[in-house]
Design brief:
Blueprint lengths: L1 H36 L3 H6 L11 H4 L1 E3 L5 E3 L15 H17 L8 E4 L12 E4 L9 E6 L12 H6 L2 H4 L2 H9 L2 E5 L6 E5 L3 H4 L9 H22 L8 E5 L6 H11 L8 E7 L1 H12 L1 H7 E7 L12 H10 E5 L17 E4 L8 H4 L1 H41 L1
Parallel strand pairs: 5-6, 5-9, 9-10, 10-11, 11-12
Antiparallel strand pairs: 1-2, 3-4, 4-6, 7-8
Length: 415
Amino acid sequence: MLVRADIFIFYIVWITMAQLLAQEEKEKTTALKDLLSRIDLDELMKKDEPPLIFPKTLEEFEYTFNEHGQLRHTTTGDPFVFNYKEDLHRWNQKRYEALGEVIFTFAVFLTTAFCTILIVDATEDEPKSFIYLSEDALTNADKLLVLIQGSGVVRVGQWARRLIINEDLNSGTQIPFINRAMKEGYGVIVLNPNENFLEVEKVPEAEQSAPDTSDEPAEKRERKEEREGKKKKDFYEKYRNPQKERETERIPIRENSSPEEHTLYVWDHFISKSLAENIFVVAHSYGGLSFVELLIQREDEVKSHVSAVAMTDSVHNVWHQEANRSIQEWLKERCCNWVSSSEPLDTPVDPMLPDCLRLSAGTERHELTSWKSFHSIFKFFDKHLEQQMEDDVAEEEPSTTVTTRGSNRAKHEDL
């Protein structure tokens, strides 16, 4: 009986100690949460952050592109350094983005192409964008090359900003495609599918609809202004941030508010008006999806004008985009998709969907697929050109035979 009493007492003590430990742990957790709640983490991160004001030119950034198209520091010759200031990731990221914008304006391929206003009937105050066309883009009766980039921050003439900054211009831009195409007698149109809106500074609501206080008593108005001033001061003291980013709003560009809309618009107003007998398309990543959407919207036109399509790691999906069977069959015949893969370049890759032939781009890096498959793409186009010429000859021969026979028959009847 005594043994049982001892066990019972031990059990009570054990439970009590467990409860005390749990209560102590809970109190520690509560104290830690209370401490963290008093710390303004954003304020700590921004405490030593320099202003978010960056150079507007490459020279001011102290960078330039060398003879190999690589971005290098003008003094040290070193590649671009992302962590310019340690432990300030946000500031470094903003600096990187600012450099990306500068590189966009450093459009060296303008020596081989010129730009045109995108909205053909734009008013003076209307948001507008532009695309690049070679001088013979719409008049070249032989060949036309159309370039469609992927989604994101990349702009007209770019495949990947990361490659431009960290690798070179050849891998990150469409310059090699433009130069080779023009050398081989193509006209060129370069799309700009990611410039879909004009970003303007947002007008504060207080300025938009400020109440009329002209009839208020002066004393009341002064007290009100004093309260507002104190409120603003308190707000500033709590969240002071000398490089606070301005609030902006986006005004969409008419009929170009998405990559798909943009591709359709450029087709209707430019590509379809080209005199080229053979139109070829290079579409990277989301650009492939935009092209398939165009094919769905303008099936007959695209099929009758486009000779072949080279995609690079395209993200299109004929099932999700509800492409019909005839479109799927056309893609099988006219399309090749060079995908990221560890296999050697041009090695067949198992098809995931019943559409394009899939070949390895010889790299596992998505953004490099266009550059790695560069030579293969032009060989692919040449092959389709040769096939087109053979088909044209084959179509002409029977008609000549029929004409000759008809002519002989007419002569025979005359006799």
